[in-house]
Amino acid sequence: MYELLDLYDENRNLTGEVVKRSKDIKPEVPEGRFINIVIIFIENSRGEFLIQHTSVEKGGVYATTGGHVKSGSTSRDTVIIEVSEELGIDISNLDFRLFETVKFNKCFFDVYYLKCDINIDDLVYQEDEVESCSWMSINDILDLMHEDKLRKSNIKPLFSIIKDHISSDLDFIVSNRDRSNIKVTDEDINKVKSVLDTDDYDRIVACKNEMDDIINGIVISIDNELKELLKKSNTDDINIRMDILSRIISISEKISGDNKAYFMGIIKKIYNNIDGDKLC
Questions:
Q1: What's the structural domain count of the chain?
Q2: Which ranges of 40-116 would DSSP assign to H, the alpha helix?
Q3: pTM of the predicted model as reported, rounded to 2 decimal places
Q4: 3-state class (DSSP) for residue 63
Q5: Same domain, 97 and 214
Q6: pLDDT tens across 132-169, in order?
Q7: Which domain holds residue 207?
């Protein structure tokens, strides 16, 4: 049993040509032609990635979920199908996005990203593809990479996502470094910026770990600040109320990324106490 894969030119235009692929037949892609492969990285709220231990038939390596785009299908639809087939879950209504496309020698490699807390106990594995799954920290994944157990095509895309996280974290830290219990200098910021231009994966992971420590301190500081405002927001003094509202707006503008949803809950409570209306 084989499947057909569409062929594309170097500009990703469909050529109308196809190649065969099966478990026993590797697709023979002509020179100047490309196939389409997709992968998706699923990350939970603890910053861990859902990583498969593939079956013996698939090499017994560690990898994220993915597959070839069949003829007539789309990249996005293939992600939904692969996750459903390999893990037994439906992500069609979840907010996953195309993170980047990497152009390899004979392949357009679409990398998708989903932030979601999935219960591993709910997964149903495709036995000929997946042996097991686990949530892994970037430190765990780095160890797998050094042991040559991580699928090589997954490495660069994963670290592109981690560097994207570092970039967002840096913006958050720069906006809130006066709240940090760890001193953050301009030199520190420039060092982080230099990490974004490197493929030194050990350095990237070390940088992310250090930034997480700084962010945790800032998060605690903002949390305490907002809770204090929440206590004061019951006052009838209009001047105090307006000052609190101004401070809330100032804080909320600086909160971004993964911290936004958590703090918006606190901000809504404060806003409702002051204004009596729901925050839009």
A1: 2
A2: 75-87
A3: 0.83
A4: strand
A5: no
A6: 999 999 999 999 999 999 999 999 999 999 999 999 88
A7: 165-275
